[in-house]
Amino acid sequence: MTKHPSTKHLMLFLIVIITIISCKKEKEEEPLVDNLLLKEWTGPYGGVPAFDQMKVEDVKAGMIQGMDLNLKDIDAIANNPETPTFENTIEEMERSGKELDRGFTYYGILSSNMSTPEFRDIQTELAPLFSEFRSKITQNEKLFKRIKAVYDASLKNPLEADQQRVVELTYKGFEMNGAELDKEKKERYAAINKELSSLYTKFSNNILNDEENYITYLTKEQLGGLSEGFVKSAAKIAADKGQEDKYAITNTRSSMDPFLTYSTERELRKQVWTNYYSRGDNGDEYDNNQIIADILKLRRERVELLGYKNYAEWRLQDRMAKTPENAIALMEAVWPAAIARVAEEVADMQAIADKNGDQITIEPWDYRFYGEKVRKLKYNLDSDEVKQYLQLDKLTDALHYVAGRLLNFTFTPVPHGSVPVFHEDVKVWEVSDNNTGENIGLWYLDPYARDGKRSGAWATSYRSHTTLDGKKNVLSAINTNFIKPAPGQPILVSWDDATTLFHEFGHALHSLSSNVKYPTLNGGVRDFTEFQSQLLERWLSTDAVINNFLVHNKTGEPIPAELVAKIKNAATFNQGFSTTEYLASAIMDMKFHMADPANIDIDKFERETLSELKMPKELPMRHRSPHFGHVFSGEGYATAYYGYMWADVLTSDASEAFAEAPGGFYDKEMANKLVKFLFAPRNSVDPAEAYRLFRGRDAKIEALMRDRGFPVTTN
Q1: Domain that holds residue 89
Q2: 353-363: burial string, b at 16+ Cβ within 10 Å, e else
Q3: Which of 142, 328, 563, 621 has the maximal Cβ count within 10 Å?
Q4: Is 106 exposed, middle or buried (0-12, 13-18, 19+ CB in 10 A)?
C-alpha cells in the first residue's frame, strides 16, 4: 500500500523543488564567480577595479574561468532556435563576456605596469589558451551563420546607422579571421594563431628582459654635462639597485634620451646607445631575430589560407589607407625631403664638432648631443633651460585646462585611498561635465618608470562608455615612463616628453568623450585613432597653455616671452631626425610583410632595405626590428605603423583649420565640430566620412609638409 504524503509534507516538498529550480535558474543567469579578477566592480563612480587586491596567483584560474563563461554566452547565442535578428544575435554578442572583460583589465595592468617573472611564466602558459579561445568564437559555424543572416538581411533592409555599423564590423571581423574557411583550413588557421600568440609573448618578454638587465653604472667622474635633477634621479635608481655611490642609466628611452643629449662622455654615449638599440639583438637566449622570421612566415601562411597575397594586403583592407601601396606612396612622398633634411642637420653638427676640434665623424650616438649644440647655436635655445619650465604637475593642470576649454570637462582630484590603485604613484581624477555636473568617469595617471613596467607611453581604458544596458561611465588611463625624481625634487620633462603627454591625453579624451551605444563602436581604425591624439599635441604650444602653466620650477616666474619665441622659431628643428627615424621603422614594417618570408634573414633584410632607402648612417630606425614591439609583440600595429604618418596628414590639415578660425585653437565652433564629428562618434562613422564632415573636404598632404618645414611641391 502506497502511503500518500500529508498536505504539509507535499507543500514542503514543492517549496524545496521550487527553491532548487529557482537557485538553478539564478545560477544560470548569474554565474558563480569567486575569482577577484572576474567579480563585478563595486564602490563609487559606478564601480571601480579592485587594483589593490589583485594577486598574480589569481590570474590563471581567473582567466580560464572567464573564457569558459564567455564561451557559454556565445554558445547560448549560437544555439538560439529563434530566427536570427540584430537583437538576439548582435546585441547579445555585445553583452557577452563581461567577466572576461573585467579579467583582462587586471591582466593588462599586470602585463604592462607590474610584470614579474612569476607573471611572465603564467602569461606564457595562457597565451596559447587565449588563442584557442578566440578561435572557438571566430570559427563557431552556428554563430557565424546567424551573423551572416543578420548581415545579409541588413543589406536589403538597412538598420539604424549605428546598428548597421556594428553588423558590418562584426561580419567583417569574422570574415577576415577565417569564418568561411573549410574545416581543414580552419584547423590550420587556429593552430597558426596559437603558435603566434606564444611567439608574441616571448618577443615582448625578451625586450623586457634586455631593458631590465642592461644598465650602465656611472661614477662621479663620468657625470659631465648631465643636469642636477637627472644626476639625483640616476643616483636614487642606482641606490635602489644596491649600487651606492653610483649613477644608473637604465635601458629605456626616458633614461637613454637625455643621457645621449647631454653627456660629454662619448664612449659612454656609445655604450648606452648600443645597449638600447641592441635590445632583442644580443645573440643570446633573449634574441628576437628568429622569432621575427617565424612570425612573418606564420602570418603569410595564415592570410594565404584566406586568399590574400601577403599580410599587408589583408590587414589594410579595413584601414583608411585601404592598400599597402597607398600607405607606401604617402611615406615615399615624404622620405626624400626627410633624408635631405638629415644631411643638412648632420652638416651643421659636423661643422660644430670640427670647430670645437673634437676630431670625430658624427655617429648615431652623437646625433642628439651635437644636435643640441646646433639648437643653441642656430636658435639660441637650450633644451635644459626650457625643461625648467616644464613641470609634470603643471603640465597635468594644462591637460585639464585644455579639456575644459574644448570638451567642457572638469577634473577633480580623487583623495588618496578613495579609489583603489595598483601602485602608490598612481593618481586619480574624477571627470565631470562642466555644465551639468554629471560624472563622465575617472582618469588615472601612472607617471613613473619602474621595474616590470614596459617602456614608452600609452593610453588604455578600464571601462568604455556605452548605453546598451544603461549608461556606463568611462575609466580611462595614461601611462608614462618619466624618471621618478629624488624626494623633494620637481619632475621636469623635455618638450618632446611634454608633447608625448599631450598625445596620450588625446587618446584619453577620445575615450572620455565617447557617445556610442554599442561596445564594438568604441574600437577604431588604427590610422585614424592616432589622429585625435596627435591633434591634441598642438595645444601644448598655444598661448593659453604657455602663459598659464609654464612656470619656473624654483622661482615660479612665467616662461619669458623671448624663450617662447625661440621655442616656436625652432619648431621645425631636427625634423629630419624625427621624421626619418620614424619613417624608416614604418617602411620596414610594410616591407617585411610584403616580402617573401620563406628564407628570410632578419638582420640582412633590415640592412639591405635600409641601404636601398639610402638611410643616413648617422641615425637608426626609431624601433629596430628585434625590439619593434608595436609590430611583433602583437598585431595591433603590424603593417599599421605607417598610421602615425597618415594620421599626421589629418592632424596638420585640421590644425590649419583651427589656426584659421576666429578663436584660433580655442574657437568654440571648431571645438564643437571636433567633438561632434571626430571624438564622440568613435568608430560609429567611417573615418574618411567623419573627417569630411569636420573639414568639408579630404585632408591634404601639403599641410604636413608645411608643418615639418619641408619643401611643398605643387602640381
Answers
A1: 25-180
A2: beeeeeeeebe
A3: 621
A4: buried
Rg (Cα) of the chain, in Å, rounded?
27
CB neighbourhood size of 25 (10 A): 10
CATH code of the domain covering residue 53: 1.10.1370.40
Whether pLDDT at 23 is above 50: no
pLDDT single digits (tens) 341-384: 999 999 999 999 999 999 999 999 999 999 999 999 999 999 99
Given a contact cutoff of 8 angstroms between Cβ atoms, the answer to whether 515 and 680 are in contact is yes
Question: Do 301 and 192 form a contact (C-beta atoms < 8 A)?
Answer: yes
Q: Does residue 229 share a domain with residue 147?
A: no
427-433 and 409-413 as β-strands: parallel, antiparallel, unpaired?
Answer: antiparallel
Kindly give the interhelix angle for 228-240 and 253-262, rounded to the nearest 10 degrees. Answer: 140
CA distances from 188 to 132, 201, 292 (A): 12, 20, 20
Enter the pTM of the model. Answer: 0.88
CB under 8 Å, gap of 24 or more: what pairs does 119-124 form?
Answer: 119/56, 119/59, 120/205, 120/208, 122/56, 122/59, 122/60, 123/201, 123/205, 124/198, 124/201, 124/202, 124/205
- Please give the helix or strand (H or E) that residue 249 lies within, else none: strand 247-249
Task: Count Cβ neighbours within 10 Å for each residue of 11-22 and write b for 16 or more, e otherwise.
Answer: eeeeeeeeeeee
Q: Is 173 domain-assigned?
A: yes
Q: Which residues contact 82 (CB under 8 A, 6 or more apart)?
A: 88
> Are residues 68 and 157 located together in one domain of the fold?
yes
* Residue at 700: amino acid letter: K
51 shares its domain with 131 = yes
Amino acid at 506: G
Count of domains for the chain = 2
Residue 428 and residue 396 in contact, taking contact as beta carbons nearer than 8 Å: no
Give 424-448 pLDDT, tens digit per residue.
Answer: 999 999 999 999 999 999 999 999 9
- Please tell me whether residues 153 and 32 are part of one structural domain: yes
Closest C-alpha among 143, 198, 135, 201 to residue 170: 143
- DSSP labels, 280-343: T-SSSTT--HHHHHHHHHHHHHHHHHTT-SSHHHHHHTTSSS-SHHHHHHHHHHHHHHHHHHHH
Is residue 233 one of the residues assigned to a domain? yes
Residue 621 grid cell: 630606425
Element (H, E) at 410: strand 409-413
DSSP code at position 676: I
CA distance 172 to 414: 41
Residue 479, beta-bridge partner list: 446, 458
The phi-psi region of residue 437 (left if phi > 0; otherwise alpha if psi is between -120 and 50; otherwise beta) is left
String of DSSP letters for 539-578: GGGSHHHHHHH-B-TTT-PBPPHHHHHHHHHTTTTTHHHH
Domain assignment present for residue 651? The answer is: no
Residue type present at position 89:
T
End-to-end CA distance of the chain: 105
Query: Is residue 156 located within the same domain as residue 251?
Result: no
| Domain end position, chosen among 180, 205, 236 | 180
Interatomic CA distance for residues 261 and 366, integer angstroms: 8
> For residue 4, is pLDDT > 70?
no
C-alpha cell at 614: 639610402
Closest CA to 652 of 694, 701, 697: 701
Is the distance from CB of 415 to CB of 518 less than 8 angstroms? no
Q: Which of 219, 282, 208 is nearest to 248 (CA)?
A: 219
